[in-house]
Amino acid sequence: MFRKLMDRNFRKPAGLMGRYIIRFLKKNQPEYDELEPLLKLNKGDVVLEIGYGLGQGIYDFARKYDAVFHGIDFSRLMYAKARTLNREHIRQGKVVLHCADFDEYAFETETFDCIYLLNVINFWNEPESRLKKIFTLLKPGGKVIIFMADAVLFKDLKQTKGEPVFYLYHVSDVVKEMEKTGFTAVETVEHTQEKNCYYSLGYKPDPVHVRS
């Protein structure tokens, strides 16, 4: 029972258990550090983070880049923490935070130049439908970056009974699904500090400006 409660709170932190889990989320900084050079942001870009957690990544990027950063997370606890941290950026219009389920929230299509998500895909039971939505939300030439741990890292993980909260995927299968969705120039970059953890990058084709 405790294990199942912990699993669900890692997916959607709330209450006293959620506040305890915040301690673990603060350890994600190396993942954001290695994500940054992959973003290759330009002035005026519009960016979306799915599952922003404490909002530290958005906060750091908004300080450095002349871009607009959106974030969506369905945990009210994370939303409150992230809003407090980013209050000045929100006031300046550099950060826009949403407290909502990505599956249900109606963003306008072709809005974002870049969409990224860290340690989120393992909470999706159907990554195919989410990848299709991400594809529609990107502008032509836009980029998606997915950080995840390969399933081999969890080969000894014991799942709780009933519907799993945490889904295991191989990076190679995610790459194939990205290509099936329509993303091109898909590549993977291994995290330098975390074994069997990867960034998968892909681009939405731009019929006007074909990537060389």
Question: Spans with pLDDT under 50 lasting ≥5 residues?
Answer: 1-26
CATH superfamily: Vaccinia Virus protein VP39
Helix content: 25-40%
Oligomeric description of these chains: single chain
CATH class identity:
Alpha Beta
CATH domain topology: Rossmann fold
Number of domains: 1
What's the pLDDT, averaged over the residues? 86
What features would you describe in this structure?
By secondary structure, this protein is α/β, with parallel strands linked by helices. The protein has a single domain, classed as 3-Layer(aba) Sandwich (Rossmann fold), CATH 3.40.50.150. The chain has 8 helices and 7 strands, in the order αααβαβααββαβαββ. Strands 3-2-1-4-5-7-6 form a 7-stranded mixed beta sheet, sandwiched between helices. α4 links the parallel β1 and β2. α7 packs across α8 (171-181). Mean pLDDT is 86; it is low at 1-26.
Key phrases:
23% strand, Rossmann fold, 212 residues, alpha/beta, globular, seven-stranded mixed sheet, disordered N terminus, single chain, 8 helices, 37% helix, 7 strands
SSE blueprint:
Elements lengths: L1 H10 L3 H11 L3 H11 L6 E5 L5 H9 L3 E6 L2 H10 L1 H6 L2 E5 L12 E7 L8 H11 E12 L21 H11 L2 E7 L6 E7 L9
Parallel strand pairs: 1-2, 1-4, 2-3, 4-5
Antiparallel strand pairs: 5-7, 6-7
Give me a quick take on this structure.
With 212 residues, the protein is an alpha/beta fold.
